Amino acid sequence: MPDVRIDFDVLETTRRTLADIGDVLTSATDAVSDIPSAAVAQSDLRDRLHEMGDFWGSSLRKLSTFATEAGAGLEGVVDAFRSLDEQIADSLKEEG
Questions:
Q1: Is the pLDDT of residue 1 over 60?
Q2: Which helix (H) or strand (E) covers residue 87, if one does?
Q3: What secondary structure letter does DSSP report for 35?
Q4: Which residue in 41, 50, 60, 72 is a FRET match for 18, CA 20 to 30 A apart?
Q5: High-pLDDT (> 70) share of the chain, %
Q6: Using CA atoms, how far apart are residues 12 and 74, in angstroms rounded to an integer?
Q7: 8 Å CB contact between 66 and 60
């Protein structure tokens, strides 16, 4: 019978990394939206930068959401594997 090996530390590290990515992207989105439009004197350039900022901010928000949701999903996977690990350990105790 094949063994099931789960490295919980790696899964937990990945989950935390995904959560951190979400936080970093949210901070970047906030920083872009905090730049005043008066910072650029030339109106055409200011308009183009504003359009780019809107697109960039929207994209960063989506990536942040995806990273946060992936982290939450991975947390569910970790919990399920921990539960499986406990069930297997309990069944082995009962047999042994």
A1: no
A2: helix 43-95
A3: S
A4: 50
A5: 97
A6: 8
A7: no
Any residues with CB less than 8 A from the CB of 21 and at least 6 apart, and which? 63, 64, 67
DSSP 20-34: HHHHHHHHHHHHHHT
Residues 6+ apart with CB under 8 A from 30: none
pLDDT band at 94 (very low <50, low <70, confident <90, very high): confident
Tell me what the mean pLDDT of segment 36-50 comes to: 81
Residue 55 CA to residue 57 CA, distance in Å, equals: 5
Measured distance CA(78)–CA(6) in Å, rounded: 9
Angstrom distance (rounded) from CA 15 to CA 21: 10
Query: Closest Cα to residue 25, out of 59, 55, 74, 52?
Result: 59
Residue whose C-alpha is closest to residue 5's, from 88, 76, 95 = 88
